[in-house]
Design a protein that fits this description.
Blueprint (H helix, E strand, L loop, with lengths): L18 H11 L4 E5 L4 E4 H17 L24 H4 L18
Length: 109
Amino acid sequence: MQTYTDLKPTFTDPEDWTLNHVLRTYAASQPDSEFLVTPEENRRFTYAEMLSSAERIASTWYRTGAQQGERVVRTRPSSCAPGSPRPSARSSRCRSTPTTRASSSVTRW
């Protein structure tokens, strides 16, 4: 596992230390730079890809009744669930966690 210990905020105002602000800022200035790497799944995501995905999910929540400022939860089936493909590199990392059958649900708190 790769751990980053030298990350320091580049925004001076702590109010800007949100995923929304960081993602939008870097998606505008360096859209093709890597935002997330998942070595277990051999996938890489750019800032532009993550912003697009986040906006798509938020749009779906909005259309189904979620309002700005509400907390919502997105659940997905576990990749370690029985019957799921289990590549050998990832199978040892699977943890038993409760999942829901709904692949995309909105919960208001």
